Amino acid sequence: MNGKVVIVGLGVTGIACARFFKQRSIEVEVTDSRDNPPCLEQFKQEFPSSMISLGGFDEQMLVSANAIIISPGVSLREPALMKAAMSGVRIWGEIEVFARFANARVIAITGSNGKSTVTTLVAKMLESSGKKVAVGGNLGTPAVALINEEAPDFYVIEVSSFQLESTFSLSPSSAVILNISEDHMDRYSSIAEYVNAKKRVIRGYGDVVVNMDDLLTRDLLYTVEPTRRIYTYTLNPPQEGGFGLRNNEGRVWICFDEQLIMPITDIKIPGMHNVSNVLAAMALVYAVDIGFESMVEAVKQFAGLDHRTQFVAQTNGVDWYNDSKATNVGATLAAVNGMGDNLILILGGEGKGADFSQLKAEFAEKVKLVVLIGKDAATIQQCLEGAVEIKHAGTMKEAVEIANAYAVSGDTVLLSPACASWDMFNGYAERGAEFVAQVQNVVKKSGGEA
pTM surpassing 0.85? Predict the structure, then answer.
């Protein structure tokens, strides 16, 4: 690539892209709609001679660029970007840059929910087999930063719909869309548009893994070229050449075809949605010739990720779980389905235009109390009224106190917000950390176990 590159949107991804191009002696400029974007001071220190335009996207800078690298949080519908595109300027995302420069095989994971868990499981399975792995993308390290390291055996990348919108060249050795549920309806005009963004992960020539339990993903069977290998997975008995579950001598086993691999009781992470995640990870690594022994070893050792149905404590017979990463309705439904009855749920935040009425039937059966927090609490209440008792809290501390006051032995308190966190917190991790801190305060007062 020659000429000037303009990075649209700074932050962690933006500065990683700037470093990537600097190492290749390519001129970098930055424009951002914010007056004080993340990583600004760091960028100024590392790139003292680079031009920076803030407080709006600089049209002149953009139309004069050789290429534009767009951060995932910026929509391609921004007028300044549309004008640049009409002028013939290339607009790529970070994953497109990664795809063009990656020097090893790639396994790519997307979906509405479970991406980080499956990405981590895949990496651990590969490592268990002795492979050198670089992990990143939407999870942790930006994908372009991985290329600056010595080439691994595999790149394992988590990719979001936002990242895929501006990706054209990605051709993973194996890829999966784990599931599709309504999300980011504040960005997409329809669920179909959201699905089409996700489908970009299976462009190319590699193997495709298909979730047969998800209505929207199983349709991929009819859209993938017949020359490509497809591996399926399901929570039912497996299809020929696929992964699934079978009963054997009173226990449920993960299987490939007729072959028993491991009982699901050996999986440490709770819920059937996580059994599905394990199946997806197994299919992805089977496609690149990893043996069952390495898969099983990794699964048995994996205790889960923070903020994803993470056990926090037990006090007075009440279990507390942190599922702050549940930022959409589908994720919360999966978490609730994976728990027993007698649930007290802390819910709310920025709803992103979601339809919360999908929660009503499930909550009526399993949830005894909902404590609502955040910007869209009133909207959520309208969708849930008549199905479950509802309380409101202004802070996480108050929400935990309300839940604790209502909980009795045998109950489970679950933070699974079904919303983004930006109205109250600096990300889902901060929200989850605050919940854990408040639960630990309850534990200290009651003498429970953390």
Answer: no
pLDDT of residue 342: 92
| pLDDT given for residue 261 in this prediction | 98
Query: What's the Cα-to-Cα distance from 447 to each of 310, 313, 410, 444, rounded to whole Å?
Result: 20, 11, 17, 5
Q: In this structure, is residue 174 part of a structural domain?
A: yes
Tell me the residue range of the domain where 430 lies: 310-444
Catalytic hit among 124, 131, 179, 184? 184
pLDDT digits (tens, 9 = 90+) for 207-227: 999 999 998 899 888 888 888
- Examine residue 450 and state whether it is found in any structural domain, yes or no: no
Domain boundary among 301, 321, 343: 301
Say whether both 112 and 29 belong to one domain.
Answer: no
* Residue ranges, the chain, pLDDT below 70: 1, 148-149, 182-183, 185, 448-450
At residue 450, the pLDDT reads 57
From the list 113, 124, 131, 138, the catalytic residue is: 138
Residue 115 is a catalytic residue: yes
Q: What is the 3-class SS of 407-430, one letter each residue?
A: CCCCCEEEECCCCECCCCCCCHHH
In angstroms, rounded to a whole number, what is the distance separating the alpha carbons of residues 171 and 177? 14
Of 115, 124, 273, 352, which one is the catalytic site residue? 115
Which of 88, 120, 143 marks a domain boundary? 88
Domain-located, residue 449: no
Residues in the chain: 450
For the chain, the farthest-separated pair of C-alpha atoms sits apart, in whole angstroms, at 70
